[in-house]
Amino acid sequence: MSTHIVEGRFAGARVIVTGAGSGIGKATATRLLAEGATVIGTDISVQRLTELASELGSDRLLTVAGDISDETVVAEVVQIADGEITSLANVAGIMDDFLPPAEVEDALWDRVLRVNLTAVMRLTRAVLPGMLERGAGTIVNVSSEAGLRGSAAGAAYTASKHAVIGLTRSTAFFYGPRGVRCNAVAPGATITNIQAEFRSPYSTERMGPYLQTNVPQPASAEELAAAIAWLLSDDSSNVNGAILPSDNGWSVI
Ligand SMILES: NC(=O)c1ccc[n+]([C@@H]2O[C@H](COP(=O)([O-])OP(=O)(O)OC[C@H]3O[C@@H](n4cnc5c(N)ncnc54)[C@H](O)[C@@H]3O)[C@@H](O)[C@H]2O)c1
Q: Could you give the percent of the chain with pLDDT greater than 70?
């Protein structure tokens, strides 16, 4: 499905996009640049960021490579943004190999919660002072179908994506009256490079039938970027604390 660029919608805006090297983050960075923003794109993969920069060839794209759950990388991103950050798209995330609660591994749990949740909190915390000083700003977090139900991923990913919704609502509640809006997109199946394998036979047996019968056709990353851009833009000025499924209707099943 093709999406339409709204020319100039982000003219003058400075937007941080995490996970900008691939999938939904890459599509979001690409779209925001096309709509006039300066984009600070971050990713843990140097190679992906280098490819993005050469593909887009824009002097409005600044990049920071590093693990966004690391506080020093967060500080670097904010520093590179140099001044006003108008918007933040927390897109980077990782999967959990569909491990059910009885089989969760500590290292995997810690990593998934750190990247999918703690990083979102840290970057949000870092950009809020400037946004609050100006009385304006928009934040979009990427949750998941797994933030809405228990049958879409393993325990760690499901917990992290539910928690992202809690953080989104908390941010919206505390700072909406001070001009900062925070919303989330909950993607269903989307064609990207995200890695996940079924490592648990029980998980395959239990989840398999749900995934086979309930999951609609996957979306393109560009369709998700369109929803994220809308929530970041003034076009959604009356929307705060919303969780927007972009999932071809999966969430109504
Ligand atoms: N693809 C789907 O079906 C789907 C469904 C629901 C939710 N999501 C969510 O969408 C978001 C984007 O995922 P995607 O599908 O585009 O995946 P992707 O793997 O294609 O892109 C994610 C990018 O994030 C980067 N990244 C991973 N860990 C990082 C870290 N610690 N610091 C900085 N960058 C890091 C990766 O290098 C990668 O380039 C994630 O939060 C994911 O959970 C995806």
A: 100
